[in-house]
Amino acid sequence: MATTIFIIVVIVILLFVKIVLDKKYLPGPWNLPVIGYLHKLDPTAPYLTLTKLAQKYGPIYKIKLGTFNVVVLADARILKKVLARDETLERSPLYLIDTVFEGRGLAHANIDLWKDQRKFVSNFLRAVGAARVSPNRKTCGTLIKKHVDEFVRVLKRPAFCKPLDPSELVTHLISSTANSLFLGKPFSLSDKKVTDLARNIRAFNELLMFGAPLNFLPFLRFLPPYKKKITLLKEAVHRVRDIQGKLIHECEKSTCKDSQSNLVKAFQLQISEGKSDNIYTLDQLHRLFFDLYVAFTETTINSLLWIFLYLAQHVEIQNKIRQELLWVLQGELLDFKDFENLHYTKATLAEIARIRTVVPLGVPHYASENIYLDGVTIPKGTMIMPLLWAIHMDPKVYKDPEEFRPERFIDSNGKFFKPESFLPFQSGKRMCVGEDVANMVTTIFVAGVLQNFKIEPVDSFPLDFTGTCGAALSPKPQKLVFTKI
Description:
By secondary structure, this protein is α+β, with helices and mostly antiparallel strands. The protein has helices at residues 2-25, 46-57, 76-83, 95-101, 111-127, 137-155, 167-183, 192-207, 213-216, 224-253, 263-272, 282-313, 315-329, 336-339, 343-355, 388-392, 435-450; strands at residues 60-65, 68-73, 90-91, 365-366, 371-373, 376-378, 383-386, 453-457, 468-469, 473-474, 480-484.
């Protein structure tokens, strides 16, 4: 009896010591068995729940989400250190993500495939001018400018001289930009494929919400509500891939296969050069196109819609941007050499990307080995969550973070600068490969639109900046007034 009591006492002491040590090195909230902290995670805005926990427990804390041990990183310095390590190159297994991507494509590819495809995509983007260092950068800019000009032409039509929700037109022209960039062929304004693609991608992103319990409790897939959700997700993915498969097939059969550069031609060139049959397959081409197309369109569309909302709310900032464009361009067309002098324009776009981070939860990583960092241990098998929203809304870094102030990104010399805590494209070896082209598109769009229109809210209708969180943070549909200058 005494031996039994002694063993129990020892076990209790060891558990107590473990809890104390865990709290010392990895603080975090208490979690329920099986579900962990999922019951308290706001399903519509999980990033807000996790940000409140960061305010309470600090910039690195642990949490249990279903069966997953998660370490949340809410500090830019810590995030950069962690994601720079090879032990964090793996993507964290999430049921819905794995169901859709199966470790292929690019964003969620396994390490070996990712290394190859990251290099391939980087070379492709450089070849088409969608990278900072590229001899064809001007060609890419011209392609983007054509779509901006189309946007302006449409808005100048008499039918559009009234309050309108710009989301449908933005979606169409960014989708056309993506198709031009990847397959060398734009969409016409009457092309039904764009509408179908956009509708199914939107459904896909809404269903793929990071905070969905099914990601962390896979056994829920056997219950009717979640079983239906998986069915809807697979159907949306199938419809998107079916449309994109037809686009790829059209590209193979039409003159676009003879274009100087397009994704299909570049991919087929790898096959002809005898690259790995396990990587350069038709299935991988379709998945890669899906990844690139969805990532480019969703982040860019939502970024532009947030930009239009904030510019409509702050007409005085529009005027400052127009003055800068007038001074820098001197009546000439926008060229890439001008980008470096558009300090206030770039600061405004950066401030919008900060205050409404399009991917507030970042993309989760996975600790393939124990990680020791500044006295903290992140155990092997832990999901690593880059909480970009908390980093960008940290009052210690950005005073009064809910206030919209582009001057945060202007230094004492009046020039644009990017602080270390500004990470809209995340950080590390697996950060977004499309940062340069995304910045190109938003800058050229904003310059083109503001040179032709004044953007304002509809009288007596306050703008809503809360957003809807799926795979990305999207502004809610609302009308704006585009008045010709």
